[in-house]
Design a protein that fits this description.
121 residues, seven-stranded antiparallel β-sheet, 21% helix, elongated
């Protein structure tokens, strides 16, 4: 029998193809820790076990940012079997800072010339 979710969070944002989305994230117990699971279209993302529910959700957010998701925010919707609806506030996750176009071009040029990623400043 599968484990019951400890919490369910509503997660909203913009995916890597620039489309808005809104899905449930389940936080479930696993071996004395917990993990976050997101199902979105054909994608299934499951975090490794984390010490807390918040750490599992933060890890999931990091994985999504790495895939190009942005403008992410979450809200606790279920705690155990209790439905919280809109009682909890949204938590906003700032997008990671993107390098400027000039930085990207210089890094690519260095790579093409064999200088690698060394900082020459």
């Amino acid at each position: 029998m599968p484990e019951q979710a400890i919490e369910k969070h509503q997660l909203a944002g913009v995916d890597e193809r620039d489309r808005g989305f809104n899905r449930l994230v389940e936080i479930e117990p696993v071996d004395g820790a917990c993990r976050a699971t997101l199902r979105y279209e054909a994608t299934l993302i499951v975090t490794p076990p984390c010490q807390t529910e918040a750490a599992a959700l933060d890890h999931l957010i990091g994985l999504l940012h790495d895939r190009g998701y942005r403008q992410l925010r979450s809200r606790l919707s279920f705690q155990g079997t209790a439905y919280l609806g809109t009682q909890k506030d949204w938590i906003e996750y700032p997008d990671p800072e993107q390098p400027g176009i000039l930085t990207v071009l210089v890094q690519r040029l260095r790579g093409m010339l064999g200088f690698g990623q060394k900082d020459w400043s």
